[in-house]
Request: fold
Amino acid sequence: MPPRKITVGAAQMGPISASDDRASVVKRLIEHLKHAKDRSCDLVVFPELTLTTFFPRNYYEDEAELEKYFEPSLPSPATQPLFDTAVELGIAFYLGYAEKVEEAGETHHYNTAVLVDKKGEIVQKYRKIHLPGHADHRPQFSVQHLEKRYFEKGNLGFPVTRAFGGIIGMCICNDRRWAETYRVMAMKGAEMIVLGYNTPTRPFWAEHDNPQSDFHNHLSMQAGAYQNCCWVVGTAKAGIEDGAGLIGGSAIIAPTGEIVAQCMTRDDELITAEADLELAREWKENLLNFENNREIEDYQIITQQAGITPPE
Ligand code: ING
Reply:
């Protein structure tokens, strides 16, 4: 089969402080788009919650204080310049943000990402399903991880969409650590899965950094890519945000599981690759052919229970 190529960019963002306004962040995102244009990118992947600091690290007593981190619409006045520039340059993008939405007369809050096409239209929305951390305030820890408090579980499933001559899936951060995330989208035909992440160097259950943070980050995405014959693009918000560390390591991973491009800093850094969506065909059709090899009668437990039931 002739190659089907997408030139994709992972636009890693360095730290965003709680005191940084959206205009200054959007300016940095636009700089990324301009560099991506110079490298003929079709699609740029920005991080999770990329318009603000990673605010789930903080406990907010004051509701109004927390609400400041949510977008009541997208595009919003602050993000419109990003959409306008993307259309001008003819670049599609994935953007992670905190979504506030009124549905059936109720207000909901999600950790959301959208895929915006080259005409500036939102062609796919995803709301984060695997929300890590805790809902209760844990003052004994210097850093919180309150995604379970601030966001509802996503209600849009794991969608895939036809775009750029292929089929694109999306997820967000912690989703990448769960094998089911990639499998569901691959079973819907995903050939490239794009995601953003904010991964603290210090896990919310410990008062010490996790020395395997970078290894686990790449392991999760490389395994997902290889076992599902998908390209995986993971983009970090990185660096020290108001004293709290976030890993970098943004990467573009081929369906072979190999990292073809990786960020080397914890700052704003763009990496790009020419992704041939046909690269995995021989694997998809042979060794990892789902139709001929998956034994679903033996997998029932996976959807029948969440936890573990060991033998007596
Ligand atoms: N972040 C983390 C992630 O899965 C986490 C959750 C926190 C993992 C601390 C490890 C240590 O990458 C988000 N935002 O899901």
